[in-house]
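Memo to structure team: turn this sequence into structure tokens by end of day. - J.P.
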Amino acid sequence: MARYIETSKLQGGVLMNMIEVQNLTKDYGNNRGIFHLNFSIKQGETVAFLGTNGAGKTTTIRQLMGFVKPQNGTAKINGLDCFQQEKDIQKQVGYLSGEISFLDENMTGHDFIKFMSDIKKIKNYQRIEQLITYFELDTQIKIKKMSKGTKQKVGLIVAFMQDAPVLILDEPTSGLDPIMQNKFIELIMKEKSKGKTIIMSSHIFEEVEHTCDRILCIKDGKLIADENVEDIKRNRGKQYSITFSNERDALNFAKKFPNISLVNLKTVLLMQTGSINDLLHELYHYEVTDIDVRNQTLEELFLQYYGGNKQ
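Reply from structure team:
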């Protein structure tokens, strides 16, 4: 961890921004692209970049990697302009594309990983071997015969093998089975402990909840939410499934609270935030046979933002 902190910019002992995006714009027409994006990520933060297909996630990531010149605005990593200093940026970034492409699918996994390590001038083959073992990859299989999940393992090994201080991962667990998804989460937590800066797009909310410090939500190329994950966890609602002893009580209770729905003649669903004192006080007047409680998921909260219904 120390070596990443030492190379970071400090001001008054506070870690400065490792990634800075200011007014970033790339307009492809027909409301496609990204428009006036502004966000920053501090050294050591892990940030989820969320949005539906076509929202602008991959366009933003390609700007960060320096693959595309912005029409307006800037993107910087560790103070370096992502487009003007693309080669320097890529020395500091472990990158996984959302659509992994291979130059020659007749290559074996070993040959491709060796090819990429030579390009990146990586000398630490021990780390590569550790990653191959960790992801249980058979490197002797030709790429053209690999499953989607096996190809994803190759991409992850290439992204992590240079031990870069910044990781940019576009849908990193796509195609992985649940066991490998869990191993990915464990690896991210290990990289976080080293002080690495990580931004990743994902559709798997469990991995976001377990690994990320913040959520950036993008819609139609515009940032619509920038939220701290712990704040979301503290403030999210609870869903109560309440079963009454008779239909009349269920109907009468349903009239007392907004956002309530009948599951069947005796059971209601209620989503509520904050104190439950009013709920408990009201339930005192009824004969209740069962109550089940669960936390609102990050996915449900995300859909609130995406549907424009932030509560």
